[in-house]
Amino acid sequence: MSIQQIKLANIIFAPIVSEKSAIVADKGNQFVFKVAKNATKLQVKNAVEMMFEVKVESVRVLNVKGKIKRFGRTLGKRSDWKKAYVRLQSGHNIELATA
Q: Is Metal-binding one of the keywords (predicted)?
């Protein structure tokens, strides 16, 4: 593996499996991933194409703000993170159960 491939492998942390992501996957051939906070759309696209060997049509990213939670008397804050919606070209699919 080259250094570029190692950097791309560190962009995607995990797929997000939820009811909303399942609906989006069925309707629009989109998959949702938790990605690095400093990741760009192009980096996410290249990482998904390299890891899953599919063609990506578009990528949308959004920053998720961490919630403020109470732990006894003190207030704490969950960390912020970034989410990416990846739309695949028709004919391509990612099997998250086997990946």
A: no
- What single-letter DSSP state applies at residue 15? E
Residues of the chain with pLDDT under 70: 97-99
Alpha-carbon span 8 to 18, nearest angstrom: 24
pTM of the model: 0.87
CATH superfamily to which 3-88 belongs: RRM (RNA recognition motif) domain (3.30.70.330)
Tell me what pLDDT residue 98 has: 59
Residues in the chain: 99
